[in-house]
Amino acid sequence: xxxxxxxxxxxxxxGGGIAAYKSLTLIRDLKRxxxxxxxVLTRAAEEFVTPLSVAALAGEDVHRYLFDLTREAxxxxxxxSRDADLVVVAPATADLMAKMAGGHANDLxxxxxxxxxKQVLIAPAMNVRMWNHPATQRNLALLRSDGIQRVxxxxxxxxxxxxxxxxxxxxxxxxxxxxxxxxxSRSAPLRLGPExxxxxxxxxxxxxxxxxxxxxxxxxxxxxxxxxxxxxTAIAEALRDLGAKVSFVTGPATVPPPDGVEVIRVQTxxxxxxxxxxxxxxxxxxxxxAVADWKVANRTEHKMKKDKGGMPVLEFAENPDILAWVxxxxxxxxxxxVGFAAETDDVIANATAKRLRKRVDWIVANDVSxxxxxxxxxxxxxxLILDSGVESWPRLGKAEVAxxxxxxxxxxx
Length: 413
Ligand code: C5P
What we know:
This protein is an alpha/beta fold. It folds into two domains: 9-182, Flavin prenyltransferase-like (Rossmann fold); 205-412, CoaB-like (Rossmann fold, 3-Layer(aba) Sandwich). The chain contains 14 helices and 21 strands. The chain has helices at residues 20-32, 51-58, 69-74, 77-83, 94-102, 108-115, 128-132, 134-145, 171-182, 230-241, 269-279, 322-327, 347-358, 398-412; strands at 9-14, 36-41, 86-92, 120-124, 149-150, 154-157, 163-167, 205-210, 215-216, 222-223, 245-250, 262-265, 284-287, 294-296, 316-318, 336-343, 362-367, 379-380, 382-386, 389-392, 396-397. The chain has an eight-stranded mixed beta sheet, sandwiched between helices. A hairpin with a 2-residue loop joins β19 (382-386) and β20 (389-392). α1 packs parallel to α2 (51-58). The longest helix has 15 residues, at 398-412. The protein is globular and about 75 Å long. The chain binds cytidine-5'-monophosphate. The site of cytidine-5'-monophosphate has 15 residues, from α12 and β16.
C-alpha cells in the first residue's frame, strides 16, 4: 500500500507575476496538509508579495539572494535545492520558463533550478499572448523534454482583461499535482486533464475505489476478476474536473489511474478497506471497485509445490464489505455514499435490495449479462437508484456516465 507524502519538503520558487498572490494560498494549503515549504522569491516577485507575508505563512526564512555571504556560510544554494523533495515554481513566468529552458543561472531562483537533482513542477502564469507566443511554446517543449512537470495554465478571465489560457492553476490543483508528482516516478510526465470553468466540488473530498482486488493463494498465485478500472477511473477524473480533491484507492487495474488525484495502490480487499479508512474524512465515497468477495484463508508463505503430490485445497474466508462498512460508520460516514451493483438478472430489484441492505445512499446499477459488453467495454447502461426512486439512463460512454454522476454528486453536496 503506497503514498501520503506528509512531511515532504517543497522548495517553492515564487516568480514575479500577479498570480503570486495565489502562491500565498498555496503555502497555507501545503502547510495545512503537513508539508514543509521553503520559499524562494525572485526580485520581480517582491513587487507582488512581500517577503514578510511569505515567511509568516511558510514559517520559514525566505531565500532571496544568490550572493548572500551569511546564508552561503550556513547553507549553500546547492544544498538548498538538494534538501527539497520537490521543487515547485508558482507562478512560473514566461521569463523564468525561458531561463529554465536556456539553462541560465544568474539569480537565486534560476541557479537553484539548475542545481537541483529533484523533480520540478511548474505552474505557468502569464498573459494569453505571451503563453501562445512561439518562444514560450518552444521553451515549454524543451522543458517537457527535460522532464519538467507542469500544472496548468487554466483558461479564463485574466488580470490584464483578456481571456484565454494563461491563468495560474488554482492552488487546489497545484496541490493535487504536487501529490501526484511526489507519488510517481521521474520518467512519467503529467497529463493533467482539460480544465473546466465550473468547479462546484472545490473544497470537497471524495474517496473513489476502483479496479479489482487480488487475493493471494501463495507468493506467486492469486485470485482476481476482470475489472479494468475504466468506470472508476472515469468517475475520479470527472470529480477532479469539477474541482474535488480525490483519493483514488485502486487495485491493480488495466486502465492507468487518473492524473491530478491522490492514487493509493492496494492489492487485497483488506488493504483497500484500510486505505479507505485512512483517506477519511470525506464528503462522499464512490465505491466502484470490484472487490473479491472471498480471500484465501489457507494462503501459504511459500510457493505451493506440484511435486509434493495431491491437489491443493483452497479454503476461503469472507472479505470485508467496504461499501457496507463505510455506510454504517457514525461520525466518519461521508455525507453521500454511492455503490455499484453489477447484476445479470432482475437488475433494478436486486440493486434496490442491495441499497437498503448496505444502507447506501445511491446505487448505480448495471446489467453485466453476456452480450452487454459492459466489462472492459467503452459503454455502460446504468440506472441510478436513489431514495426517491429509479432513474434509467440511456446507453452512454463510461466517461459520460461518470460526468453525469459527478454532476449529481456536486448537486447533492
Ligand atoms: O454486493 P456486491 O459485491 O454486488 O456490491 C457491489 C458494491 O459493493 C460495489 O459498489 C462494490 O465496490 C462494493 N463492495 C465493497 N466491498 C466488497 C464487495 C463489494 O465495497 N467486499
